[in-house]
């Protein structure tokens, strides 16, 4: 069962790429499995930023992964990405 | 404009917290106009896009203190509403739509003789300068065009 946040991110990805919604599962890696290229990913992040009123810290996430401080799956697998977005929304609502 | 150097902005007119206005004069003569087009010289639409992109780029550079370089990534809804002829004096405006992580989105427009002649939404990737020569050139250009805080 997916969350409303997951569903919204799934729809955003489907709208901003050539990936059909049914292929976007919780276990899918946004880049490795769904084949999203860097320009489509940028459009997707913009759409997520607008939809949720947040600023997804993509650069910080990428630096953490490149430095070996976090696995890529933590941020770029769909189920985990939805959780990260929920955390960012909660932090914003809490005034963070 | 210095078309042969692809430097499209002459000077900054105004800079705000999230918007910029620049002035630029189209050259009276250029090989560009000999081909585009004989008997009907007009500034190519792609150069109007580049002018808008550079204007937005200077806004982003001003906002980040010339610490990171914006690179053109996407142009949406580019519209060319009128011909721009040699010698035209352009006013170009750009305003920040969204400041993201490693990217930014700007809305830009060009006016000539008080009429809107082009507009577009422009997306940039923003990253550290990839070469010291590029950073040096951007700082020199910021001074030349009178970017506030760097003139």
Tell me about this structure.
The complex is a heterodimer of chains A (96) and B (151). Chain A is mainly alpha-helical and 96 residues long. Chain A has helices at 4-15, 38-52, 58-66, 73-76, 78-93. Chain A is built from 5 helices and no strands. The mean pLDDT of chain A is 93. Chain B has one domain (3-143): Hotdog Thioesterase (Thiol Ester Dehydrase, Chain A), CATH 3.10.129. Helices cover 25% and strands 40% of the residues of chain B. Chain B has a 6-stranded antiparallel β-sheet, covered by helices on one side. Chain B is globular. The chains are: A mainly alpha (96), B alpha+beta (151). Chain A binds chain B through residues 39, 42-43, 45-46, 49-50, 55-60, 62, and chain B through 73-74, 98-103, 105, 123, 125.
Secondary structure layout:
The complex is a heterodimer of chains A (96) and B (151).
Chain A: H1 4-15, H2 38-52, H3 58-66, H4 73-76, H5 78-93
Helix pairs in contact in A: 1-2, 1-5
Chain B: E1 11-15, E2 19-25, H1 31-35, H2 45-63, E3 68-80, E4 89-99, E5 103-112, E6 115-128, H3 132-145
Antiparallel strand pairs in B: 1-2, 2-4, 3-6, 4-5, 5-6
């Amino acid at each position: 069962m997916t969350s409303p946040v997951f569903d919204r991110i799934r729809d955003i990805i489907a709208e901003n790429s050539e990936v059909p919604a049914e292929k976007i599962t919780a276990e899918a890696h946004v880049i490795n499995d769904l084949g999203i290229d860097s320009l489509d990913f940028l459009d997707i992040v913009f759409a997520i930023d607008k939809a949720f009123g947040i600023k997804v810290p993509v650069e910080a996430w990428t630096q953490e992964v490149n430095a070996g401080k976090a696995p890529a799956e933590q941020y770029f697998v769909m189920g985990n990405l939805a959780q990260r977005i929920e955390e960012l929304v909660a932090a914003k609502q809490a005034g963070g | 404009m210095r078309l042969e150097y692809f430097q499209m902005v002459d000077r900054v007119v105004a800079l705000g917290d999230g918007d910029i206005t620049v002035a630029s004069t189209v050259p009276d003569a250029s090989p560009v106009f000999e081909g585009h087009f004989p008997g009907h010289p007009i500034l190519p639409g792609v150069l109007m896009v580049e002018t808008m992109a550079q204007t937005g780029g200077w806004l982003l550079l001003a906002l980040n203190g010339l610490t990171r370089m914006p690179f053109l990534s996407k142009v949406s809804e580019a519209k060319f509403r009128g011909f721009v002829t040699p010698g035209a004096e352009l006013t170009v405006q750009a305003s920040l739509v969204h400041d993201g992580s490693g990217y930014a989105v700007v809305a830009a427009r060009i006016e000539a003789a008080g009429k809107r002649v082009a507009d577009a939404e422009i997306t940039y990737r923003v990253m550290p300068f990839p070469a010291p020569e590029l950073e040096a050139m951007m700082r020199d250009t910021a001074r030349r065009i009178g970017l506030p805080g760097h003139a």
